[in-house]
Model the fold of this input.
Amino acid sequence: MAVERSSWKIKHEATLSELVQLMGLSADEAAMLKALQSEAQRQAPAMREDFYRRLLAHPQTAEYFSDVNMNHMHEMLQNWFVELFCGVYDEAYARRRMKIGDTHVRIGLPVRYPLAMLDVAMAHAEAVARTHAQPDAATTAVRKVLALDVAVFNQAYEDRQIQALAEMVGNERLARRLLSGES
Ligand code: HEM
Done:
């Protein structure tokens, strides 16, 4: 890994604007999502029910909720879902979504669990999109914002690993080399 990659210099909130560009999320698509926000509000309780039914039925994931206020969790998850349809995917949005990723890093949650749960969110987000007058275009748009969320969520885990390793070995470049498997 001799070369330096320009992607390594994109950090924090800038990762979201970079991804919006990569995915080609357009202003029309953002407006389409915003128009669906009240439908998302209606759909959110059903999404939350499916989400926690699955997590609480599985011992390894249920144990994360043993001393957690579930009413608060329900509210936070529903807000997360409705905010997917906020229509403004700027730096403030990026900060809010990155903070959610950080929270899960902090509680020691293996990343496979939130990633696996995205199919529940996807099914409900697509149900919302199908109520739009242009259901195919709305579905494409909603898939993009969910993909953005997956990417930002994952990035929180990678950032933490790079940061911890860079602190140990003295610099980020060496940390990246070690994580790539090249010593
Ligand atoms: C699609 C996947 C997921 C989404 C969208 C999601 C969403 C959220 C949100 C929005 C919060 C509030 C975070 C904050 O305000 O900083 C939160 C907190 C939390 N989540 Fe998740 N979550 C996901 C997956 C999971 C999974 C799989 C688990 C456990 C198995 C989990 C356990 C928790 C716990 C325990 C908290 C409270 C953490 C604390 O404040 O101490 N989450 N989640």
Notes: DSSP finds nine helices and no strands in the chain. The chain has a mean pLDDT of 94.
